[in-house]
Write a structure and sequence with these properties.
Keywords: ANK repeat. This protein is an all-alpha fold. It has four helices and no strands. It has helices spanning 13-19, 23-30, 47-54, 59-64. 18% of the residues are buried.
Length: 65
Amino acid sequence: MLLNATDSEGDTPLHLSVKYAYPRVLSSLLQTANVEPNIVNKDGLTAADIAHHAFAPGQSYYFLV
């Protein structure tokens, strides 16, 4: 399924929605039953890991909800 497809860096649409701060896209993806949130990219990071590292404490939780 394309929703779980990866690019050359191993990033899925879920990873990219976090990296580029698109909360509406992220929310839509997370509500889709076929999206796998635990895929790791070539750096060994899930989308949640990226959010945790990219945002201030507490902000990553807000972004992911």
